[in-house]
Amino acid sequence: MSKIVFSVTSPENYVTAVEHVTEALKSEGFGVLTTIDVSATLKAKLGVEHKPYAILGACNPHYAHQALEAVPDIGVLLPCNVVVREEEDGRVSVVFMDPESVLGLIADPAVEKVGHEGAEKLQRVAEAVGKD
């Protein structure tokens, strides 16, 4: 994996994993602003079958506000996306955008602090929903 993400394997099935990830995000102050069902979109737009795959647009309003106050254009890097996908072997992967790495692209101490604190929270979410 690249340095802009970290991931875990969920012991649950896909549907339960999406629910568990959503609840674990909530417990760390994140809401899910958007849920993109990639599989359904590919089926509807291209007529192709794809393993279950969702992109959850996770946002912690407190951190988003701090980042936007520091750098108004930072919205292009928000929200913190979390992917839940079923692998070919049936395992379920949960992949988190690493806000510390991504927001570290901005040379601003306030944004770097938001990225670090957000990453710590998402690491706790990862620990709650899966195993390395």
Automatic annotation (TrEMBL):
The residue ranges crossing the membrane are: none
Q: Which residues form a coiled coil?
A: none
- According to the entry, every stretch annotated as the DUF302 domain falls at 36-99
Note the Pfam families from the entry.
Answer: DUF302
Q: Which InterPro entries match?
A: DUF302, TT1751-like_sf, UCP021774
**Protein name stated in the entry:** DUF302 domain-containing protein
